[in-house]
Amino acid sequence: MVSPEVATGTVTGMRHRSRLVNLPIRAAAGAFILNSGLTKLQAEKETHQRLHGFASGAYPFLENVPPEQFGKVLGASEVALGGALLMPALVGDGLAGLALSSFAGGLLGLYTKTPGMRREGSVRPSQEGTALAKDSWLAGIGLTLMVSSLTSRRLSRLERKASRRKASRRKKDIKTAN
Predict the structure, then answer these.
(1) What is the CA radius of gyration of the chain?
(2) What DSSP designation does 90 have?
(3) Which residues pair with 12 in a beta bridge?
(4) Burial class (CB in 10 A: 0-12, 13-18, 19+), 32
(5) The pLDDT of residue 153 is above 70
(6) Would you call 121 exposed, middle or buried from its count of C-beta atoms within 10 A (0-12, 13-18, 19+)?
(7) CA distance 30 to 85
(8) What are the C-alpha distances in Å from 125 to residues 34, 119, 122, 130, 132?
(9) Rounded Cα–Cα distance for residues 81 and 36 (Å)
């Protein structure tokens, strides 16, 4: 019998849930982002300068951040996000989805704000923009994790409510039988 406090098909932690059905998408996105972060942490100064120039073109507030610091912080952030996605027992679907959606939003912001990434008068990517436009799948995964978390909580509440009704009926049946 499934405990009424735990939704079927979930990995439970202290106060979060990760649905087993989400493990493949978490693993795919997490491994990809973790690898990207580790690569940035080991990158040369020129790579950090290129990344910084690209990002500060879309987000001018980054101009005051030194390129190497930007590259290291970006790499560490990607390692943290990738690790969070790969550890569903520690980080629930809702929080992982929120973090991934935020990260993907930043990438899609680069896509929309950087000249030459889109075809003229369209949201469709140019040849140069395809590498960033493909990050829309990360946004989709993040949103899926958040929605899954919300529906999982609703399912848990409904299961608890049904269990309480069933127990209440049993008590009534016992009282009427006596």
Answers:
(1) 22
(2) T
(3) 17
(4) middle
(5) no
(6) exposed
(7) 5
(8) 25, 6, 8, 5, 8
(9) 11
- Compute the distance between CA of residue 73 and CA of residue 134 in angstroms, rounded to an integer: 23
The residues spanned by each domain of the chain are 14-153
Please tell me the distance from the alpha carbon of residue 44 to that of residue 157, in angstroms, as a whole number. 51
**Per-residue pLDDT, 31:** 97
Quick check: helix, strand or coil at residue 17? strand
Q: What pLDDT is attached to residue 33?
A: 97
Query: What is residue 11's three-state secondary structure?
Result: strand
List pLDDT tens digits, range 24-50. 999 999 999 999 999 999 999 999 999
Topology classification of domain 14-153: Four Helix Bundle (Hemerythrin (Met), subunit A) (1.20.120)
Q: What's CA 146's distance to the chain center, in Å?
A: 8
What phi, psi does 37 have (nearest 5°)? -65, -45
| pTM exceeding the 0.85 threshold for the entire prediction | no
Tokens, residue 87: 């550890």
CB atoms within 10 A of CB 162: 11
**How far apart are alpha carbons 45 and 67 in whole angstroms?**
8
